[in-house]
Amino acid sequence: MRRVLVSAVRLGLLAVVFCASATAGMILLSSGSHTWDGTESLLNPRLFRNGVPSTWASPKPFPGTFACPTCVYFPFAISASTLAGFERIQIDVDVSSTGSHVLAYLDSFNPASLATNYLGDQGSSIDNFFQVIVPLGHDLMVVGQTNFGPTIGQSFSFTVSGETPEPATWLFLSSGLGIMVLMRRISRR
User: Fold this and answer.
1) pLDDT digits (tens, 9 = 90+) for 124-171
2) H-only helix segments in the chain
3) How far is CA 167 from CA 93, 99, 133, 174, in A?
């Protein structure tokens, strides 16, 4: 029996090492797009673009603001039920020009206080992604802003995805469960 247990542990460790390079998957939860048409609300100041996208590994502090008397914004509300229990959220952004920038907020967005509820942003106004952590039971606000005043006719789009655990995590958990079952059977004998 001891040899069976040692073999099970070795097999589990080998499987974890083999799958460790696999990446986590993403599940699409929501998407949105907007073309600036001049009917949006003013946003002065706007968020400062510091070139650093937010990531799960290193939550980004609020980057500050930049005066822009003619900048505007457009918000999208994504409910906690749409987030479906995912906390690690990735927002992929496509912009038609550097005139648009996408930000994320927890529960609500207050244009008079950009630091309030700030979760993160894309860093630079290019096609890229950024990551934020949204605690369970909370809503996500995705907000587009213009960087240089009205940019009528330009647009942005985004997708919101939730991270699924990587295969190595599932394998590790199931290996541990298998070892516990095996240990229980051995102890009964």
Assistant:
1) 999 999 999 999 999 999 999 999 988 899 999 999 999 986 565 555
2) 2-19, 80-83, 167-188
3) 26, 39, 21, 11
